[in-house]
């Protein structure tokens, strides 16, 4: 934690469990409706109002001319109706004068075409002129509202995404980033493998951003592209830290600073920020993606909140949902009605995973413009709660009741603690693997989620942690496809196992150094001692072919990825290949290291049955009892409450003890059902 960021938890008294809020855009509505709307927000049970997100045009109608009286009015209405305010900086949407008068403040795409005014997120965050304008508006806002006791905190920008920017400002910033990193051009040439295809540079000034649009897939250098991803993520983090610093010079320490990352963020890396108190996420589970069973299309993708709610805790220790889908959206492949109770179930999911705030985009459905088909918690008449609004009201009423049941000082039951699991994951490995997948069947984003799902089906508490985190508190640590390593991190993994931890390492781990080069050594050389085996070769099959694997007397099939292993003599073989020309070769191994174990799973299967059975062996072999929840049933424990949610299309009877006190819902969880109980 750095000097200016604060401990995220201090903003959220535990007894409050989760605080609820809603996005309101007064600038979209007639002023004579503001009081009616704010009053309605309060009467529905919300506790804070999220304001000013995209309202730059109204706060600075002309360069240097600031206008805040309208916002003062809304804030005093919030005070009148006992609502707190979460303020947002407007940097995601610039006023028309910015694009007209200061062209350079906009990003350029891979064809070097400048973004136009009219949407959002097109500011060139490394451009000094744009930065200057951001600094001014944020300073003005901070001065005006930084000491307002009703303002609880600040969201920076909107869904930061580390957009690739090929503008001249970004080219300069990239070159500077490279100079800082490599110091000499010789070091860069080596790291980028620039001898290949005459990519050699004599000078940093010859470098332009590697441009897949113009060079084509083959011509692109994976090491240069990896650095471009790193640079873009660093620039994004630094832009957020810059805004946080500007705010902090005027705001009270009681106001938090955060931002709202997308749940699936493949560019922006929250862990690179140093000045946020904590990170939040936006969750839109229902956009026409893969869901579970016949009703799945109404319930949404169960892995969205599952992943984000854990992942974003790695900044500041706490998290929460800043935007939750309030009903049908306008951007899905199709946008169905949600099953009754779905929004409430999603809210409970964020809560179950420890969420400290539960806010939604947006209050009123807008009657015009790009998002007019997007649900709000209030319908287009401006006053009637939508289905999502009803769900929200029920959730808020129930949370108020649960607060009365809260008992301070409770600790996680040992039965659950004994299963505690960490998954080590970072975006750098996502970037490098996704660039060179080697088979179209490799699903880079979903790969770690597969293991998260398995551990959750065991009823384990799971954290998604960076490699720098302390591993000692976890009984099981999973390292899925962690391609780039160095000797330090492998040493840490070895120590964890030696001290009694159970390490599960999977295919594609440790095959490259941090620049993405292979080792001039045997495959995956840094971990061969740790796993007690050598990776001899890797096979992959066409999508319709089936590879056969035998573990005990059970057969499994695979076709995505298979490492052929040569175990050392003290290493146990858990599974072998049972067809193909290498029938009999080893697919999964287990190695004793000190007081612990290291299991290597060399195979990626579609149905995850093999992986699940191996993990089952490891957990039960370590003397731990596990559950067997079906897909889409997630069970959590937080602050003394057990919470179960059901994303599946079937009812599921929760097996809870006779003496359990049911606080919300019923033992039989219907699709979109929720059960809260205490023991
Ligand atoms: C989010 C965004 C919101 C709104 C919403 C629509 O990604 O942060 O501002 O556009 O999508 O679903």
Characterise the protein shown here.
With 679 residues, the protein is α/β, with parallel strands linked by helices. It folds into four domains: 3-163 and 235-405, Glycosidases (TIM Barrel); 169-222, no CATH class; 419-621, 3-Layer(aba) Sandwich (Rossmann fold), CATH 3.40.50; 633-678, Golgi alpha-mannosidase II (Immunoglobulin-like, Sandwich), CATH 2.60.40.1180. 30% of the residues lie in helices and 19% in strands. It has 19 helices and 26 strands. The chain has a nine-stranded mixed sheet. The protein has an eight-stranded parallel sheet with strand order 7-6-5-4-3-2-1-8. Strands 21-22-26-24 form a four-stranded antiparallel sheet, covered by helices on one side. A hairpin with a 2-residue loop joins strand 21 and strand 22 (641-646). Helix 9 packs antiparallel against helix 15 (427-435) and helix 12 runs parallel beside helix 13 (387-405). The longest helix has 27 residues, at 222-248. The protein is globular and about 80 Å long. Bound molecules: beta-D-galactopyranose.
